[in-house]
Design a protein that fits this description.
The protein is mainly beta. It is about 0% helix and about 50% strand. It has one domain. The chain contains no helices and 20 strands. A hairpin with a 4-residue loop joins strand 7 and strand 8.
Length: about 260
Amino acid sequence: MPAPLRGVLKPPARRIVRRSRLLRGAPPPPGPTFVQQATGSSGAASTTLSAVFGVAPTSGNLLVLLMAGDKNTGAMTLAGWTITYELLSTSVSLYLAWKVSDGTETTVSPSWATSSAAGNMAWVGEYSDIAAGTWTLLQSASSITDETAVATKATGTTAATSADGIGIAAAAVDSNTSVTTVDPWGSSYAIRHSSTGGGGRGAVFVAEKLEPASMAATSTFTFTGTADQTSAAIGVWAKVVGGAPPARAPALTSQYGGYY
């Protein structure tokens, strides 16, 4: 009698397992972002000017003012703003000020103590950031003219920053008419504002770059035309929480799949 048939065992089905390591949380904020700018200039024997935005700034955004004055135009007055630099010389003056917008600064009107010989020029920029925290000037540096006529000027170098931020560099040239063209700024700073011609008034030039944390910020302004007295400065701003950098949400780090 034949032996009974034994059951046929089927191999187990292969199961595909996908695993991922995902640190949960929203995407990280993109960092400071340019919103809009306003410029203004004055004529000879002036003590004030106005820069007018196309629309009112958004409350809570960062506002930065940079102004060049022809000759030593003395102390600047601008209520509600923090004045970081007044680089005053016999040839050209450079001012840097900033504030957190309250939404009312459609017109920004700085004044200065000593009449400008041929006029001043100002630039005001607005920046936003969706990260939590308070706008803070992390680091700044400057380099005042030594009264030598030059066609290139370094901003100075900041100390290392504690957070990612927006670096804004500026240069002030004694006479706007000296500048024919502006060359690319150093350290990959992108031109935000330039002016050529314009007679003998002081001229301000602005460039910007997103600066990573733990880096020292610096740039160099270079122009073609007639060498002239030039001062420069740089600052890095970011939103911080309680004196610390803003929390950056984690993101997907890796993913893998396989069989078992």
